[in-house]
Amino acid sequence: MKKLDTKLMHPRDQITMIIDKIYRSGLTTTSGGNISIIDDNGDVWVTPSAIDKGTLRPTDMICVRKDGTIEGRHKPSSEYPFHIAIYKSRPEIKAVIHAHPPALVSFSIVRQIPNTNVLPQAKNVCGPIGYAPYAIPGSDELGEVIADEFKKGVNAVIMENHGTVVGGSDLNDAYQRFETMEFCARTLINGNTIGKPNYLTDAQIDEFEDQIPRLLPEMTEVKYCSEERAIREQIKNIVLRACDQGLMISSYGTVSVRWKDNDFLITPTNVARWDIQLEDIVQIKDGKREPGKIPSRSTWLHQEIYKRFPHVNSIILTQTPYLMAYSVTGEKIDVRTIPESWIFLQDIPNMPFGAHFAGEEVILNTLSENTPAVIINNDSVLVTGDKLLGTFDKLEVAEFSAKSLTMGASLGKLIPINDEQVEDLRKKFLG
After folding, report:
1. What is the mean predicted confidence (pLDDT) over 90-112?
2. What Gene Ontology cellular-component terms does the record carry (predicted)?
3. What CATH number corresponds to the domain at position 419?
4. pLDDT > 80? residue 215
5. Structurally, how many domains does the chain consist of?
6. 285-291 LR contacts (CB < 8 Å, sep 24+)
7. Nearest to 269 by CA among 284, 281, 285, 283
């Protein structure tokens, strides 16, 4: 499948693609939310009013011409006036998404703004977040209060007792901001269920950004043998599967697979995970990168793991909704509460933020055949394994366990199996 060049897609096709992703991800309802794009002519393309978000087609989109003329077979969204107000207040914004994703609605109801310093990429993707006081949906007043917030230079706004609205330089940019902001809000809510979230300083977030391996030397010659191409297909399929299952979001997630010896293939930086293609994946050979591509920030760590652990042939580093609750609080996830989880993962230790940066040894000194996964505080979960599918299975088991534990925390004290029962599991399943 050829990579989508959304800049060449008609606005109505872009909107159809993104509203479908939002709806199928459970971030809006059949009747809720709206999306628009303003084109180079100043015409605004917008979703229709009262049409099922699960069945929208390009022909359903409405065009509001620059002169105010409305074209299309439906009525435009009743809230399109505030889209127009945003475009007038911020000409550099070319796309707007408004919806009622559950976690962000929770923040709007308690009248708070999520602190994006809880995750490094959240602050950089979302930027500062504004807050719009309540106004009647579809009213001119709502357009005014939202536009006033955007005039302050923010690209995301919490709407009091309503939802959220984000803008972007294009629709992909807006969607990534929307998705990342909701993930951040969900992480904070889950974190508060099991403990108290911790936050990063601006200096720590800047240090995270500095991990992009821009200076990794480039190869002079690249070979794409059949085995190498097969690995690209594996990585692409797992990344897309992770996105479909909510185990990876567009702004974060890394997968790598050993190719031969200590050479491997790894996902890139700054490519939307849901649209990753074979040509995006980066070959790392003899410490050099495939020309013209920037691999994941965590490339150094993946390289060192392959060098030091011959049994590891695949690595996934990602953010998942419930494991991140343990990441941002620093609470230890006790997989001894579920026998199958302990068999797959044994204990999952927490690592300090920055443990995955180049030159740091703590993760490398912790991983082993009996410790295949670690949680990196305020960042991610890292899972290692042999075959990529098996590594992905471990990730799924860890996330399902984290979900059960987080939900169970609201019911009462979590009671793990005892040491004797753990030893019985060790003898039967681990020899």
Report:
1. 96
2. cytosol
3. 3.40.225.10
4. no
5. 2
6. 285/219, 285/259, 286/219, 287/216, 287/217, 288/216, 288/217, 288/218, 288/219, 289/213, 289/216, 289/217, 289/218, 289/219, 290/218, 290/219, 290/222, 291/218, 291/219, 291/222
7. 281
The whole domain housing 412 covers: 206-430
Name the residue with tokens 């930086």: 269
Tens-digit pLDDT profile for residues 365-399: 999 998 999 999 999 999 999 999 999 999 999 99
**Global model pTM greater than 0.90:** yes
Q: Output the CA torsion sign for 267, 324, 154, 145.
A: positive
- Spatial CA neighbour of 240 closest among 252, 232, 248: 248
Contact 181, 104 (CB under 8 A): yes
Contact 343, 417 (CB under 8 A): no
Same domain, 183 and 145: yes
Instruction: Output DSSP code: residue 201.
Output: -
Cα–Cα dist 389/235, whole Å: 10
- Report the DSSP pairing between strands 380-385 and 314-318: antiparallel
Phi, psi of 176 (to 5 degrees): -60, -40
Q: Which helix (H) or strand (E) holds 350?
A: strand 350-351
- Does any domain span residue 1? no
Question: What tokens does 31 get?
Answer: 């009747």
For residue 270, is pLDDT > 80?
yes
Structure tokens at 79: 């809230």
- Fill in the DSSP letter of residue 313: -
What is the C-alpha to C-alpha distance for residues 105 and 424, in angstroms, rounded to an integer?
Answer: 46
Quick check: 166 and 174 in contact, CB under 8 A? yes
Q: What is the pLDDT of residue 214?
A: 60
Query: Where among 146, 163, 194 does a domain terminate?
Result: 194
Which residues does 403 contact at the CB level (< 8 Å), separation at least 6?
Answer: 321, 322
Name the amino acid, one letter, at 415: I
- Taking only the tens place, the pLDDT of each residue in 221-252 is 999 999 999 999 999 999 999 999 999 999 89
- Last-in-domain residue among 168, 194, 220: 194
Residues 213, 190 share a domain: no
- pLDDT attached to residue 1: 39
Q: Is residue 199 part of a domain?
A: no
Cα–Cα distance measured from residue 217 to residue 222, given in angstroms and rounded to the nearest whole number: 13
